[in-house]
Each structure stands twice: as C-alpha cells, then as structure tokens.
Automatic annotation (TrEMBL):
Protein name: NAD(P)/FAD-dependent oxidoreductase
Superkingdom field: Bacteria
Gene3D superfamilies referenced in this protein's UniProt entry, alphabetically: 3.30.390.30, FAD/NAD(P)-binding domain (3.50.50.60)
Gene Ontology annotations of biological process type: 2-oxoglutarate metabolic process
Pfam families in UniProt: Pyr_redox_2, Pyr_redox_dim
Organism name: Streptomyces apricus
Length: 478
C-alpha cells in the first residue's frame, strides 16, 4: 500500500450524500477549497435507496388512487398497474444506480472527489482507503464534516442473517414483486413500502409492535392510513412483534408474539436506524465509535472547534430536507469561522443556527391518504409544558376537497400556543395534502400570529381553504 502525498483543503467532507454535497457546495460558494469522500455512490442513500426510488414507486400508486376518485376518469384506470413500467420509472430516477451525473456536478462546482472509505485520523485529518488499495491523506485547514448518514437496524433474532431479510434498501431496489411480503414496523418506511408493494401486487402483512401506525404523528394519521391499507387488501396487525423468523427453502416463516405463523416470500424490517459512525475514526478524536454526534445549532460537534456532524449522524431529524437545511447552516458557519466573522449566535433565526430542527420540522408520508405534519403534535406540545389548544377540521367539509376527489376522506389539526397566539404544529391527512404542508411550515417557522393568518386568504375552491376552516374553528371556540 502506497501513501500518497498529503493534500490540504479548507474543508473535508466525509460522505457524499445530499447533505455532504451541500456542505461542500456552501464551502465552495464561500470561496473555500473542499474535498469530499464517498465509499459508495455519490448522491447517497436518498438518491438510490430512499427518497427518490421510494417516491418513484409510490407516485403511480397515488396517482391511480386519486384518478379512481374522479368521475369520468374512474373507469379508465380500473386495471392493474404496469409493474414493469413502474420499476423502470424507479430505475430512471435512481439513474440506474450510477452516479455519473452527480460526480459531474461536483466537478462543476470545483469539489475534489475521493472514492474510498474515509476515516478521521486525529484532528483535521482524514485518511481514505481507495478501492484499489491506494491511500490518500487529507488535511483540513478549517473543518471536517462527517455526513455519513444512517443505516437500517435489524432486530437481534437468532439466524436472521440466514433469512436475508429486506431493509429499506432492498425494498426500494427490488427487481420483482414478491407474492407475499411481511413488513415489520409501522413507521414511515413500513407504511410507505406496504402501500407501494400492496398496490404492485404483493399480499402484504404489516406487523406493528405498538398500538397503531405512524406513532410520531397525531393518532388520527395512523388510523386513516390503517383504514386505507386494510381496504386495499393489506393485513394490518398491531400489538404484535416477531418472535422468530426462518427461511425454509424459498419461504420465510414468521412466528409472532401472538403465536401466529405467517408464511411469505420476503420480509422487510423497518424497525429503526443507527448512525454510520462505527468506522469513521471517532476514537481518534476522543469520541465513541457508532454513536450519534452531539452538536450545537451550527452542527459543530460538542467539545471541538473543527468537527461538524451534519444530517442523520446528529439524530436531530432523520430527513433529507432537514439534513440539507443543516448543511446550509453548517456551510455558513464554517465560512464565517474561517473568515473570523462572529457567528449570529444571538439570533435564533440567523444564518448560523439550525433553529428549525427544534420547532418546525416538516414531513410528508407518501401513503394513500398522504399524511403531513410540521411542529409538535398536541401530545408533544403538552408534554413540553406549553399551554396549547388544538382545533380539528374534517377535510371532507372543505369545498376544494370535494372537487379534488369523490368521497374525500381526511382530517386537519392545528395546535395553537395560547400564550403567544401562534401556531405550534399542524397535521394534515388526506389525498394531496403533501402540497399543503409548506404553508403550515411557514406559519410555524415564522411564528405568524393567528390574527395575522386570518388575513391570508385561501384561494377558492382549493383544499387550502382548510386554513379558513381551522381559523374559524379556533375563533369560534374562544
């Protein structure tokens, strides 16, 4: 193995997913030199095994469901989905698992790419073991950013490796539809993949240890998604866990805590995530391998003045859009510190503070119906000690919803802080509500007074008229 000459950059980024790419981009935009290290595909989990392929699988499913609710169109879309076309559409959006385009983008902004496994090797130093055995040593003048993301966690069941279970990666990249699929876990990955594969022809059994789906959202979100999955033919079982799983020939055999035996062709475990920090050299800078990174609002790792943990690795919000937001914050903070410019730490909404991580994290679950939320649920706000009140609206009563779909089913909730008279959280569940959530995010992040929102007039007849109904319900209930 030959050690190359040490290369010096202002910023070195480990992990070239969307988060790492944005850290590098912000560094270059500030006039700093930057290198990025990637052991797999440039573009990361989101581009090839998460956001893009999962939504490409789900889009035809949701579009067909919406079309079937429109008179005059319903009869034209009664047949099955074209599975080959759906999978080809998915493959297109993953660039067939090739990263040429994203590599070209890095080259275009002047970021040097090092392929291989990157590890910290003491302060401001990263070593890269290349695919051909070559070794690069990178030194950072100002900052190293760890943006290596997270990985799926499998439960500790005897012989599980022999079963070759699916994780989110296999679920989004599978090249054939399993006849029978067991999905374990009722979070976002579990319900989205249950929705997609059930619609593509699998007989899905969804096993959930807790009392319902989407436990981190308002309870009605999981209830409406459960109802829809059941109507689509999925078998949703709550309050059960997997006690044992084996593969007998080509069949997966699952034994549940209820004593049931379930046979399937594949099993997907969507039961949690862990940080990809177990082999990135944390021990060389006094940190614990495999741990989540504790960071401040500029994403600077606690106890350092040069190491940043951006994206999933800091466990603040395991969402691509939130990680990219953090990357913009971290990039601005790195540039300011490099230039000796004071950070705007006294301004919680300034360029150097990821305040939205605490108060205004939006999320869309692309099931049928969609579920979208921002800010805390009613229970979370109350548990945090806030004096709040929730108002609910049946989305079917909104004029635009009736035009959007016959038999529209959905619900909206607005959580109002009674001391500040601002919106703390909003949840929408129903067809098409993913496009509503940014208006709620602006209201929450901007701390817009309810009295001011009264003058933000929704267009008629759109589903966004739900805002008027929510505000009326709040005023009338005073």
């Amino acid at each position: 193995m030959t050690e190359t000459e040490t290369n010096v950059y202002d910023v070195v980024v480990v992990g070239a997913g969307p988060v790492g790419e944005n850290v590098a981009d912000r560094a270059r935009a500030a006039g700093l030199s930057a290198a990025i290290v990637e052991s797999e595909l440039v573009g990361g989990e989101c581009s090839y095994w998460a956001c893009m392929p999962s939504k490409a699988l789900l889009r035809p499913v949701i579009a067909r469901a919406d079309a079937r609710r429109v008179p005059g169109l319903r009869q034209a879309v009664q047949g099955p989905l074209d599975t080959a076309a759906v999978l080809a559409h998915r493959d297109y959006f993953t660039s067939n698992w090739k990263d040429d385009g994203q590599v070209g983008w890095l080259e275009g902004i002047g970021v040097d790419l090092y392929r291989g496994h990157g590890r910290l090797d003491g302060p401001r130093r990263v070593t890269v073991e290349g695919p051909g055995g070559e070794r690069h040593v990178l030194t950072a003048r100002h900052a190293v950013a760890v943006s290596t993301g997270s990985r799926a966690v499998l439960p500790d069941l005897p012989g599980i490796a022999d079963v070759k279970p699916w994780t989110s990666r296999e679920a989004t990249s599978a090249q054939a539809v399993p006849g029978r699929l067991v999905v374990v876990g009722g979070g976002v990955v579990g319900v989205e993949m249950a929705t997609a594969w059930q619609a593509l022809g699998s007989q899905v059994t969804l096993l959930v240890r807790g009392g319902g789906l989407l436990p981190r959202m308002e309870p009605f979100a999981g209830e409406l998604v459960t109802e829809a999955l059941t109507e689509a033919g999925a078998d949703v079982r709550t309050g059960v866990s997997v006690e044992a799983v084996t593969r007998e020939g080509g069949t997966v055999v699952v034994t549940t805590s209820a004593g049931d035996r379930i046979e399937a062709d594949e099993i997907l475990f969507a039961t949690g995530r862990a940080p990809r920090t177990d082999d990135v050299g944390l021990e060389t800078v006094g940190l614990t391998p495999g741990s989540w990174l504790d960071v401040d609002d500029s994403c600077l790792v606690t106890g350092t003045n040069w190491l940043y943990g951006v994206g999933d690795v800091n466990h603040r919000a395991l969402l691509t859009h939130q990680g990219k937001y953090q990357a913009r914050i971290a990039g601005a903070a790195i540039a300011a510190r490099a230039a000796g410019v004071p950070l705007l730490e006294t301004d919680p909404w300034g360029a150097h503070s990821a305040t939205a991580d605490h108060a205004a994290v939006p999320q869309v679950v692309f099931t049928d119906p969609e579920a979208a939320s921002v800010g805390p649920s009613l229970a979370e706000a109350e548990q945090a000690g806030h004096r709040v009140r929730a108002v609910d609206v049946d989305l079917a009563t909104v004029s635009g919803a009736g035009l959007y779909a016959d038999g529209y089913r959905g619900r909206a909730r607005m959580v109002v802080d009674l001391d500040t008279e601002t919106v703390r959280g909003v949840t929408f569940v129903g067809p098409g509500v993913g496009e509503l959530i940014h208006s709620a995010t602006i209201a929450v992040a901007g701390e817009v007074p309810v009295d001011r929102l009264w003058h933000a007039v929704p267009s008629y007849p759109t589903v966004s008229e739900v805002w008027l109904r929510l505000l009326e319900a709040y005023r009338d209930g005073k």
